């Protein structure tokens, strides 16, 4: 698997990351290097080997269903570029 | 189950429908944070730093949300996956602060199941059909956008952000708007029985994405469209009708259906395409590195199973075995609210048949007149049970019970107090009844003669007259016996 410049630009757009033409060129090489290395892993026979989900074997911690958080509206809104009353304000999006 | 065909210029078309129902899990706190799920709070007050996706915040799953999804899966006889995993669905939108929704694409917590639906859940003879369920997975809800508050800005409220949803995905097994409606009704009923979702469509606790395609009957599946976020059963049925007709018209006029996402406009009763960029559906799913896989142990699964209530189909069968008519059993079990009320009545020791008849005629009738739901009933199951006991032990007659019930509805008084206060106890005083019978026979000699010459139907007339003379307070059985004797 490899990527071309169009794919890199598309991924950048989907990720909302602005990259220049020169950066895109550079990224094609870097990403293809990473992909080639990952592809090498495909050569290893892993038949019968369970996928490793964590480096340290551990189980998912679950919470009890109690309300102990929230009610921090001012903190939540503190960094908003545009704040309108109790709301975040964003450029109008209408479907 | 129901024949539904669209008549086109080139013949008949069949509609194929699949539904993705989003049901809000009943829980106090959110799926991955400990802030409240309460409805109708001040904007952005039920939001933690996790829900607002502040840097460095980590999700910790709510056990109750997983439990409710598993219980729901068990209620539809689905495969429960002991091992499941959360994935990130990546997209940018103003109501999604993380930039991704935590969902379960590859390994959902619940696998295949099915539910049996009927076109009219209150008609025991209505045909039934099994609708396959492909999966149920757990995911986060997004925030809410408001567009009409400001000329150039949309407002964002994140109170819903991070609330747990179950996405219940059906197989494309439905063939008419009616079947789709029946499926959602049955699903909602099961969710309410289980207690995993309140099923409240007005408040958005349940909404459906509707997949519709058309084909020549039995032919290859057509290209489908998905109509998003339909929030009532009526709208869903209208959207299917409109969308199926649109697709037929399009194909027959030489066009082709485009696989796309559409919106239903309830005012215009039509669907229209959403104005999305073509790459908006490139979600780049990958396992969420913040979360380990969900592994369910035996104890967890056993508790889920043990805590399941009796479900509608099983309850209906049991009620029939208690002697209820099939119709009564179907009506009483269709909605969890009704079934639970009836259960409370039975728990007070009321006879099942007597209780069901009274609930369906008297109580439903009264609530209908008052414009109230069963939850708002002014008479509780305990109060109703007292009234019914007074009838079954012969203290008052059925017709007096109706009067007592009227007073109970108005005043909230206990049945026994009303009977005592108004002197409504039924009399079994044969002497008093015989005296009235004698008077009535004397006043209606002609009718007595007719009766004796074979006009049996007149017996009812005498019963009515006697009861009237006794002001409704005589024991009807004794009236019957005494009248038979007197009329010979």
Any chance you could write out the topology, listing elements then pairs?
The complex is a heterodimer of chains A (95) and B (488).
Chain A: H1 5-14, H2 21-41, H3 73-77, E1 83-84, E2 87-91
Antiparallel strand pairs in A: 1-2
Chain B: E1 5-8, E2 11-24, H1 63-75, E3 83-84, E4 87-90, E5 100-103, E6 113-118, E7 128-140, E8 144-146, E9 153-157, E10 164-170, H2 177-194, E11 206-215, E12 225-230, H3 233-252, E13 261-265, E14 270-273, E15 286-287, E16 294-295, H4 298-306, H5 312-321, H6 326-334, H7 336-347, H8 352-370, H9 381-392, H10 398-411, H11 415-422, H12 430-443, H13 445-452, H14 458-469, H15 476-487
Parallel strand pairs in B: 12-13
Antiparallel strand pairs in B: 1-2, 2-10, 2-11, 3-16, 4-5, 4-15, 6-7, 7-10, 8-9, 11-12, 13-14
Description:
The complex is a heterodimer of chains A (95) and B (488). Chain A is mostly helical. Chain A has a two-stranded antiparallel ribbon with strand order 1-2. Chain A has a domain at 5-41: Histone, subunit A. Chain A is built from 3 helices and 2 strands; from the N terminus they run H-H-H-E-E. Chain B has 488 residues and is of the alpha+beta class. Chain B has 3 domains: 5-300, no CATH class; 310-422, no CATH class; 430-487, Arc Repressor Mutant, subunit A (Orthogonal Bundle). Chain B contains 15 helices and 16 strands. Chain B has helices at residues 63-75, 177-194, 233-252, 298-306, 312-321, 326-334, 336-347, 352-370, 381-392, 398-411, 415-422, 430-443, 445-452, 458-469, 476-487, and strands spanning 5-8, 11-24, 83-84, 87-90, 100-103, 113-118, 128-140, 144-146, 153-157, 164-170, 206-215, 225-230, 261-265, 270-273, 286-287, 294-295. In chain B, strand 8 (144-146) and strand 9 (153-157) form a beta hairpin. In chain B, helix 1 packs across helix 4 (298-306) and helix 14 packs across helix 15 (476-487). Classes of the chains: A mainly alpha (95), B alpha+beta (488). Chains A and B meet through helix 1, helix 3 and strand 2 of A and helix 1, strand 9 and strand 16 of B.
